Amino acid sequence: MSISHTQTSTSADRARLFRDLHTSGRPLVLPNAWDVAGARVVEAAGAAAIATTSAGVAWSLGAADGDRLDRGLAVDLVARVAAAVSVPVTADIESGYADAPGGVAATVRDVVAAGAVGINIEDARHSGPGKLLAVGEQAERIAAAREAAAPADLFINARIDTYLMSAGDPGTRLADTLDRAEAYVAAGADGIFVPGVTDPELVLALVKGSGAPVNVLAGPGAPTVAELAASGVARVSLGSSIAEAAYAVVRRVAREVLTTGTYGTLAEAIAYGELNDLLRDSGA
């Protein structure tokens, strides 16, 4: 018998459900959240799982994205979200909030203890030479994450930033990406996430060549979820784009009221009572 969303009362149940939701051709769709209220709104809209966005989390807590947020603050947010929703939660932990594999392991242990059953971990280099961590270096970090998560069945989504960072030779970028995917899966990753790729031919090449469930970062101009499903994609996420859109609303409202003195931008707001009711039984 399959596990329903209301039956995911234990971490093991949520982990098993989250893993099962990654099906090629029937993708898990994740409108990323960055706070408890947003997570409750996304859950109420029918999402089968909640994914955090590291950028949105960092911005809401006063930091820039790119491993600049204090690890404790990041983990605390994950714990609050996981306590507030009944569906599985996967946490975007950037590059692990640490330089060395041991630090990544510490982050993963804290995130698992906070209630997450999945993580995203990226290979972008936010300081030092080069745009990306060396393949072997990132593989060691993923292996450390896998070991630290035991015995929890953590779903490790290995983010490969070759396209997002325009790293390396464009002529070999696909091959380089697939080489990284192979190394990361061998080190313990469960899925592959390549932001910056929405071209159908490239998406299909990643699906065929990666040997793992493929996550696509979608947004305006990207293929629809149905089109991505037809390419065999197993996961579609929106990343920081919802947070960006929300802050755009803040800017539009502020500009409108400060210039024209009107309030039209607020017309489509969620009603106070509806939003308040969503948080009444929050465990956060």
UniProtKB/TrEMBL annotation:
Pfam family membership, one: PEP_mutase
Superkingdom per UniProt: Bacteria
Record GO terms (molecular function): lyase activity
Keywords assigned: Lyase
PANTHER family according to UniProt: CARBOXYPHOSPHONOENOLPYRUVATE PHOSPHONOMUTASE-LIKE PROTEIN (AFU_ORTHOLOGUE AFUA_5G07230), PHOSPHOENOLPYRUVATE CARBOXYLASE
Protein name: 2-methylisocitrate lyase
Species: Planotetraspora kaengkrachanensis
